[in-house]
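Quick one, T. Sequence first:
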Amino acid sequence: MIGMAAMDYTFLLSKNDNICFDILSRFTQQANQSLNKEELAQSLSLTNYQLNKYFETMNADLASVSEGTPCYLDEPNKGMWQAFGLNSYILQKVTLVYLNRAPLFTALEYQFFYNNLYTKKEYVTANYMSSSVFYRSLDSLEAILEKHGFFQASSLYANKEFTIRLHLFQLYYTMYNGVSEPFEPLNPLVEDMILAIQAELSDPLNPTQETKLSTFLRVWLLRMLNSNPIGKDQKLQISPTASSTAMLNQLQKLLADQLTLKKDEFNYLYSFLIAQGYLGFNKMHELAANIPAVDELTEQFMGEMQSNNVLLTTHLVNDSQLRNSLLSIHFQFATFYIEPTTFISPDQVKFFAELYPAFDVVVSHNITKLQRRADLYLTQKMAVNLYFSYMFALINAIPAELMRDQVHICVDFSQGNLYTNYVIQSLNAFNHAHIVIDSHLTADTDIYISDFHSKKVSQTQVIWQDPPTPVDWSNLADLILDAKRQKLPELFPDKHTDTE
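Structure tokens:
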């Protein structure tokens, strides 16, 4: 079984900083950003004295990362701690402070990036740290990393070096993203490399894409410089083109003073660009041909669409968009799978399940099948992230007209077309809820919207005698959900039972 454990790198923090991080995280999870001191002490098994010491430490740390608006903790009412100016960005900044002063993190950087370049003594001297603390951290590092699944493959395809690099990338991308760049001396070289890569891409890189690539390049460079090659046993083999050759030549020139860029290493970099979608779906299709699991997972998902009968027609009119989205999901899943840090809240799943019940049937059944596979282990984060990925792929690719769980709405204002068309245009905000606008009242109509009540209409009526307010739209959304719930037992009688 491939152990796909969640990579939460806060285990690298020192004990005290980990407690501070825990407390600050709890503040950000509360709407009013307040915590009961007594409950906190019980939850963390801390004395009042210890809590007060952490309070002082956290305030000093927050002051060191605050910009403009001060960020601090206070106790305006006895026994209640209140955070001011604390948000996810500030939390990320202070977490990075904790990471960079953690002895275990210093040991990790030495072990994976510098152990073939410097002696332990040279590294200790350069980092101004205690020899005993460094050696103790280094001795315990491997066992701690093993315990937290660092060496376990997090994708279907991975050799040992591939896995190490992917998890190092995950660490730096997660902890540094949006705050600062790791290994800042590499900045000029990395900027030149990104320009060389960008020159061979059809579209300009967005800020998030550039940040991801920048972090990837830093880990890639340092592993090569430390004599940790990717190896020749790669399933991901690109077919050289004029564009890829031009990119390789330019990168070889930029790196000539540092190292000799081998084709295996360029192949690894180019594969990452393909996996991230920087080079288009054609390249992804080509590379995915070497990994049967990608097509297998896509066909399994399309089979769920058919067997659960969620469409009015047997086949999609044009399923290329959906297949391309599934290709992207499954290719990354099988290769450069990056443990998600966003779109992982299970609380939001219920909203999508209610709004898109037919899609929920397909997605939930498919994820259940993945969880049953002997060669996979889906964490909750992975399962939720996959749920959203699949859901968005379906929403973006399949028009409401093809869905069996459509909600028909007839708009009929006595003032005429101007008013009627205004509401119809506004309803486009709900266009992904599988709404179909009826120009006339029919037997299929579920909701009737007008400015006057009509005795001739037996369906649910919504009366708007003034332009609709946000509350009106919210109430309409509730009615749409109600209409879907009423249709669900008839359309999908087995939705709430597992008949697999």
